[in-house]
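Lecture 7 notes: from sequence to structure.

We start with a single chain of 220 residues. Read the sequence below before looking at the structure.
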Amino acid sequence: MFRAIGLALLAAGCAPPSGSNQTTDAGNATLESATQQDKSQEIAAADGPFGYAMGQSIDRLGLEKMDKPGLYQTSTPPKPHDDFETIVVEAYPETGICRIRGVGRDLDGDGSGASVRGKVQELAEALSTRYGEGKKVDNCSGGDIECGSQFWMMTLNGGERYHGYEWMRQTEKMKATSIGSIDVAARASDISTSYALVEYHSNNKAACDKARRASSASSL
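Now the structure, written as tokens:
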């Protein structure tokens, strides 16, 4: 009799509780949805700048967290480019990747700025083959003397000069990869050392701006 009771209790203990199938099915559906989302992001990243995609989660990308909230960096992106030594990614849990920045290698002995202008133009032409033609911008806020060609690098280093190309209106390729805007520009480390910088911004600007403000406020 005791054996019969024991078997009955064992059988009862092995029986799944009511509703467990529904719970399991819901869990499997959630897991399948997450897996499909990961695969979709991987496909988008394969076609994105340096192998990343706007909106992509950075949880498994192995990026190094920087001091500023929301910023991460790497020297080994999925799709490296010889002209860029560091890739900086801005991302937040609620938005995924918001911005992708490629920091070019130093061009030493570029006192006239000729090397960086050439590199910026070269990169702009390459970008144009993917995203359409960008708009050239070449501004100097100083006077005639300081904005003369002999002081080109000095004004770039001082922040009075901007030289680059911008993609502010979305092309079909930009829409397809969720890129809202792109710019490639000359930058200076000092008056004789320059580098090129390329930056891609998400088209989810409102959400990214909100996440950026919240992340900044959390440090106060």
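The chain has one domain: 38-217. Keep this in mind for problem set 3.
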